[in-house]
Amino acid sequence: MNTADVLADAFGRIQESVHEAVDGLSAEDLGAQLDSGANSIAWLVWHLARVQDDHVADASGQDQVWLTQGWADRFGLPFTDTETGYGQSARQVAQVRADAALLTGYYDAVHEQTVDFVRGLDDAALDRVVDEAWSPPVTLGVRLISVIGDDMQHVGQAAFVRGSLERR
């Protein structure tokens, strides 16, 4: 297994988990918050997809599928098109309403662009600095692992919320 295979496998596991977290749930269930300050499944999946789309597009020099494939319009959220969910209030979290097909459709489009990019990487590519705003500067390898870690946390949270809803 090489670098590209490991990264593609990790992102593939996220995709599988996203589908498992949302498939078969109504838009109402996807938007449910366990309490007034909690993140919904819809918000968690939207946010993890937005962050992956934003970060991988930036690192690869591509445009975000959120904008180029019309996902911002399809979601119709009351946020700017550059919003990824960082620092949003509970009120803003509650505004993310979507059905399973919309959520998985967007994630799948992000996944496709991500995997197309990572399949072309070798070990040396991971050392390229992609963000000098941090100390030390962030390399492509660190950025991709950060995205994978963040996505896995959020999809795990979505699975927890689903389990909680199913036990009600």
Sum this structure up briefly.
The protein has 168 residues and is an all-alpha fold. The chain is 62% helix and 3% strand. The protein has helices spanning 3-22, 27-31, 41-60, 65-68, 71-75, 90-94, 100-118, 140-166; strands at 129-131, 138-139.
Written overview of the protein:
- The structure is a single chain.
- This protein has 168 residues and is mostly helical.
- It is 62% helix and 3% strand.
- Strands 1-2 form a two-stranded antiparallel sheet.
- Helix 1 packs antiparallel against helix 7, helix 3 packs parallel to helix 7 (100-118) and helix 3 packs antiparallel against helix 8.
- The protein starts with a helix and ends with a helix.
- The model has no long low-confidence stretch (mean pLDDT 96).
Distance between the termini: 43 Å
Topology order in helix (H) and strand (E) letters: HHHHHHHEEH
Count of alpha and pi helical runs: 8
Q: Structural class per helix/strand content? A: mainly alpha
Count of DSSP strands: 2
Strand content: under 5%
Mean pLDDT: 96
Tell me the Rg in angstroms.
16 Å
Strand order of the biggest β-sheet: 1-2
| Uncertain residue segments | none
Global geometry: globular
Q: What percent of the residues sit in helical stretches (DSSP H or I)? A: 55-70%
Question: Major sheet: size, sense and barrel closure?
Answer: 2 strands, antiparallel
